[in-house]
């Protein structure tokens, strides 16, 4: 009886994982689109002062549309229970963040995330995509130069540096909500 139950549970878990794989792939692909939209917004912020007056209005209009598309995509991802990690000013944990560079500083403790090169995302309680981060290492701020983001033993990121986010109020890690037991979860009815 127990073997039969175990076999049935294993089969159900395998089928669940197989049906979840295409959705996971789709969500991961949508995160690439999110990255492209965010990079377009950062690029436009840097170009504002260099654009001639006659083209500035067109650029602003285009960037408003890109911003609206980015916000819409983020709302849709949130509806699918996909949330950004927001690791700035938190300790880098290997399960959720891959360290791609280090920046010497005396103002922050070691292994504190200073910059997210590629943002990470959760899907429910699981990591959908790990973040790529720049962390603080002991040193003086005078040692830090704009091009000294990476240490020699770490591979540099291919993406350009992103604008730093505003520091969060707390430096403690957010607690994840507790997962409900199966009998208390809502199930979707299929039509």
Concise overview:
Helix content is 38%, strand content 17%. With 191 residues, it is an alpha+beta fold.
Describe this structure in words.
A hairpin with a 2-residue loop joins strand 4 (121-123) and strand 5 (126-129). Helix 1 (2-47) packs antiparallel against helix 2. The two termini are 33 Å apart. This protein has helices spanning 2-47, 53-79; strands spanning 82-84, 97-105, 113-118, 121-123, 126-129, 131-138. It has 191 residues and is an alpha+beta fold.
Low-confidence stretches: 144-171
* Largest β-sheet summary: 3 strands, antiparallel
The dominant shape is flat
SSE run: HHEEEEEE
Radius of gyration: 21 Å
Strand order of the largest sheet: 1-4-5
E-strand count = 6
Layout of helices and strands, plus pairs?
Blueprint: H1 2-47, H2 53-79, E1 82-84, E2 97-105, E3 113-118, E4 121-123, E5 126-129, E6 131-138
Parallel strand pairs: 2-6
Antiparallel strand pairs: 1-4, 3-6, 4-5
Helix pairs in contact: 1-2
Kindly list the characteristics that best describe this protein.
alpha+beta, three-stranded mixed β-sheet, flat, single chain, 191 residues
């Amino acid at each position: 009886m127990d073997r039969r139950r175990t076999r049935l549970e294993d089969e159900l878990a395998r089928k669940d994982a197989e049906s979840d794989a295409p959705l996971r792939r789709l969500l991961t692909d949508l995160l690439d689109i999110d990255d492209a939209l965010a990079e377009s917004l950062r690029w436009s912020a840097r170009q504002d002062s260099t654009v001639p007056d006659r083209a500035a209005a067109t650029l602003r209009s285009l960037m408003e549309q890109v911003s609206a598309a980015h916000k819409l995509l983020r709302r849709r991802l949130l509806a699918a229970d996909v949330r950004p990690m927001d690791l700035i000013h938190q300790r880098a944990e290997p399960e959720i963040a891959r360290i791609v560079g280090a920046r010497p500083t005396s103002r922050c403790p070691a292994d504190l995330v200073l910059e997210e090169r590629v943002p990470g995302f959760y899907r429910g309680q699981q990591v959908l995509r790990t973040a790529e981060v720049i962390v603080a290492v002991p040193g003086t701020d005078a040692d830090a130069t704009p091009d000294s983001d990476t240490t020699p033993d770490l591979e540099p990121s291919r993406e350009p540096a992103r604008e730093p986010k505003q520091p969060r109020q707390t430096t403690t890690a957010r607690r994840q909500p507790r997962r409900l037991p199966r009998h208390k979860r809502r199930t979707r009815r299929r039509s």
